[in-house]
Amino acid sequence: MSPEIEPVASGFVARHADRTHAAALGPDGDEVVLFSEEALEGFEAASGYWRKGVSREALDWLVLVRTVGAFGGEPCLILDVSEENGEESLHIAYTGHSGMKAEALGYWMVDHGAYEVVVPRDEVFSIRIERVPVPLSPSGSEP
Predict the structure, then answer these.
(1) What is the C-alpha separation between 64 and 132, in angstroms, rounded?
(2) Which of these, 81, 86, 85, 67, lies nearest to 119 by C-alpha position?
(3) What residues pair up with 128 in beta bridges, in sequence order?
(4) SS3 state of residue 102
(5) Residue 4 binned pLDDT confidence (cut-offs 50, 70, 90)
(6) What confidence category does residue 8 fall into, taking pLDDT thresholds of 50, 70 and 90?
């Protein structure tokens, strides 16, 4: 893995009013909640941060940012990084399509069809950060 790429937690990022914010999808299909670490106009204080609900259509863009890689030749999502006794480990989730392959690689089932494992960092290859565009219209009718 390149030293410039650090695994990050998955999450949404949005551009609104010339600023980039951490974001979350709102309770209905059209709403997005924007987060800020500083007080901004229109944002409400909420336990050490500020938040503002806007419609998706009010955004310049919305993306899902996630760190992915490959373990045992199969795709994975990097959930967390830990260090024990000077050794870095990655907590990963299987994103392939075969539960049998996941189990053969040592993943454990955490829910129906969901598999996770913790492995040494040097066993995960092709680590990269993906930006997956999310349609601004909730119907998904955008190209």
Answers:
(1) 5
(2) 81
(3) 68
(4) helix
(5) low
(6) low
